[in-house]
């Protein structure tokens, strides 16, 4: 691929430390690693320091932040991102634009600039009960426009691709599935010293189940809490992620079931600690009702930890044989799966070995090459 000037929606890469922010930064890094001859322009309403993005900007001069180039754009950043950005992309001679977070700016379809949008999930359509009604309406309008306006669409899983086709009537031939990469730090061996340090830093129990992700109703952490009541008393549950109002309901469940001291929450854990949190656990839990991809399943398997995950969305696609899968409403099935992993060391070893083979497809290099392949396809349409 000859040197291109590629524009990216940079808001989440700059402002977010989880989810789509991680996706955005890994996408940029993966492209730079295998195609450093391109110029990557990261468009954001305002520049701010981000300790995960700043080192990339310092190391790669071809990666640059771009902010509004007009007084009005600087005064009304959100409006610029949705309605003023297309004109700036034309002025700056961008060859291709990639909306990394489900959105494209108004007018991109008529601008002559080839565009790609990554749609991560449409859970707000599949399960609107987990969202405010106004948010469902706003997301539906934005996602629908992006799906129509984009030259090509990237879905992060086959499940998401099917949902886009179902809810927005998109021709499947317009959608490419490009699996999100799992950051290389999860594929590196975690030393016993690192596990001991993290265990001491967070006062972790000797044996624990770990769950990584925002503590919210859709993630369904209550299933693991209820299952814990029938598992050995020396087994703990460690939930790593931002607490929402749902966490208070978990606190009530913990007290009602007499699990005080067995369930702990960790917020704002640095990314560098997450591999050791996985590696020190006897298993990982991901009982979410619905996901677009399920990156924590892959991270846990990469760290050598077997997973108990939920059926019903894309988690089997992410984890393959590296997990045991249960109905997200059946806490007894979750407890049974956990007991199997606790009691059968050969099952644990087999599950981890098969899972690690499965997740080789999610290496960052494959992610970057998949993105570049879509860009070439887009430019040649």
Model description:
The protein is α/β, with parallel strands linked by helices and 381 residues long. The chain has two domains: 194 residues, Glycogen Phosphorylase B (Rossmann fold, 3-Layer(aba) Sandwich), CATH 3.40.50.2000; 177 residues, Glycogen Phosphorylase B (Rossmann fold, 3-Layer(aba) Sandwich). Strand 12, helix 14 and strand 13 form a beta-alpha-beta unit. The radius of gyration is 21 Å and the shape is globular. The model has no long low-confidence stretch (mean pLDDT 96).
Features:
Rossmann fold; 381 residues; alpha/beta; seven-stranded parallel sheet
Number of strands: 13
Main beta sheet = 7 strands, parallel
Number of helical regions: 17
Number of domains: 2
- Rg over C-alpha atoms, rounded to the nearest angstrom: 21 Å
CATH topology of the largest domain: Rossmann fold
Spell the H/E element sequence. EHHEHEHHEEHHEHEHEHEHEHEHEHEHHH
Order of the strands making up the biggest sheet:
3-2-1-4-5-6-7
Strand content: 15-25%
Instruction: Provide the helix percentage.
Output: 40-55%
Give me the secondary-structure category: alpha/beta
How many angstroms separate the termini? 15 Å
Name the CATH architecture of the largest domain: 3-Layer(aba) Sandwich
Write the layout of secondary structure elements.
Blueprint: E1 5-9, H1 11-15, H2 20-34, E2 39-43, H3 54-59, E3 63-66, H4 71-75, H5 77-91, E4 96-99, E5 115-119, H6 123-126, H7 133-149, E6 152-155, H8 158-168, E7 175-177, H9 192-201, E8 207-212, H10 221-228, E9 235-240, H11 246-256, E10 263-266, H12 274-279, E11 283-286, H13 295-302, E12 307-310, H14 315-319, E13 323-326, H15 331-343, H16 345-358, H17 364-379
Parallel strand pairs: 1-2, 1-4, 2-3, 4-5, 5-6, 6-7, 8-9, 8-11, 9-10, 11-12, 12-13
Helix pairs in contact: 2-17, 10-11, 10-15
């Amino acid at each position: 691929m000859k040197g291109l000037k590629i524009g990216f929606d940079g808001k989440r890469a700059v402002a977010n430390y989880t989810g789509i922010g991680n996706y955005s930064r890994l996408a940029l890094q993966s492209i730079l690693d295998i195609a450093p001859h391109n110029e990557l322009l990261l468009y954001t309403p305002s520049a701010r320091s981000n300790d995960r993005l700043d080192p990339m900007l310092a190391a790669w001069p071809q990666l640059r932040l771009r902010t509004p180039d007009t007084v009005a754009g600087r005064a009304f950043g959100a409006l610029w991102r949705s309605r003023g950005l297309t004109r700036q992309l034309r002025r700056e001679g961008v060859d291709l634009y990639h909306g990394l977070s489900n959105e494209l700016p108004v007018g991109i379809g008529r601008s002559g600039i080839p565009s790609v949008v990554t749609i991560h999930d449409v859970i707000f359509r599949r399960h609107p009960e987990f969202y405010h009604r106004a948010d469902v309406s706003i997301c539906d309008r934005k996602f629908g426009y992006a799906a129509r306006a984009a030259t090509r669409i990237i879905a992060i899983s086959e499940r998401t691709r099917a949902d886009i086709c179902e809810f927005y009537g998109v021709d499947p031939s317009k959608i490419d599935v490009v699996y999100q990469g799992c950051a290389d730090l999860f594929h590196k061996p975690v030393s016993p010293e690192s596990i001991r340090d993290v265990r001491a830093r967070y006062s972790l129990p000797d044996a624990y189940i770990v769950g990584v992700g925002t503590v919210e109703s859709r993630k369904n952490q209550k299933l693991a809490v209820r299952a814990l009541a029938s598992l050995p008393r020396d087994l703990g549950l460690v939930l790593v992620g931002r607490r929402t109002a749902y966490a208070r309901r978990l606190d009530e469940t913990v007290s009602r079931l007499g699990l005080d001291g067995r369930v702990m929450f960790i917020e704002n854990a640095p990314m560098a600690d997450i591999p050791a949190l996985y590696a020190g656990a006897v298993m990982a839990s991901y009982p979410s009702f619905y996901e677009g991809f399920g990156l924590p399943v892959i991270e846990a398997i990469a760290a050598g930890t077997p997973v108990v995950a939920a059926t019903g969305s894309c988690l089997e696609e992410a984890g393959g044989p590296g997990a045991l899968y249960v109905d997200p409403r059946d806490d007894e099935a979750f407890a049974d799966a956990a007991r199997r992993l606790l009691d059968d060391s050969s099952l644990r070893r087999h599950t981890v070995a098969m899972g690690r083979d499965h997740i080789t497809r999610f290496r960052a290099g494959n992610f970057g090459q998949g993105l570049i392949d879509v860009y070439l396809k887009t430019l040649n349409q």
